[in-house]
């Protein structure tokens, strides 16, 4: 689903406490991508901005590509690592999970 919603081969997110995030320019539009998932997009350019899941109500995940300084985010793990397109080869030492990391 992240791939379809981002329109890219990979989607990269960074999580924040939901209360710590405020959209200060305009109000993004929301798409219900599943029964519990909510994705927000820029109303003007359509950029994918965030993901929220009702099952994790205290977190808000921002798309790294939408940040002013995406290079300052250091990846820590790969989720849905077995669901990549064939030409993606993640050959780093980060933990790879078939879906989410164990709770
Ligand atoms: Zn925009």
What does this structure look like?
It is a single chain. With 103 residues, this protein is mainly β. It has a single domain, classed as Alpha-Beta Complex (glutathione-dependent formaldehyde- activating enzyme (gfa)), CATH 3.90.1590.10. The model has no long low-confidence stretch (mean pLDDT 92). A 5-stranded antiparallel sheet has the order 1-5-4-3-2, with no helix packed on it. Helix content is 5%, strand content 24%. The protein is globular and about 40 Å long.
The named CATH superfamily: glutathione-dependent formaldehyde- activating enzyme (gfa)
Instruction: Classify the fold: give the CATH topology.
Output: glutathione-dependent formaldehyde- activating enzyme (gfa)
Helix content: under 10%
Bound molecules: zinc ion
What form results from the Cα inertia axes? globular
CATH architecture descriptor text: Alpha-Beta Complex
Question: How much strand content do the residues show?
Answer: 15-25%
């Amino acid at each position: 689903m992240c791939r379809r919603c981002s329109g890219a081969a990979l989607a990269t997110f960074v999580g924040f406490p939901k209360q710590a995030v405020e959209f200060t320019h305009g109000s993004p539009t929301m798409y219900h991508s599943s029964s519990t998932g909510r994705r927000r997009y820029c109303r003007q350019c359509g950029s994918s901005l965030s993901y929220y899941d009702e099952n994790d109500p205290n977190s808000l995940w921002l798309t790294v590509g939408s940040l002013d300084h995406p290079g300052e985010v250091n990846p820590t793990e790969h989720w849905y690592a077995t669901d990549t397109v064939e030409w993606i080869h993640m050959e780093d030492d980060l933990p790879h999970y078939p879906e989410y990391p164990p709770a």
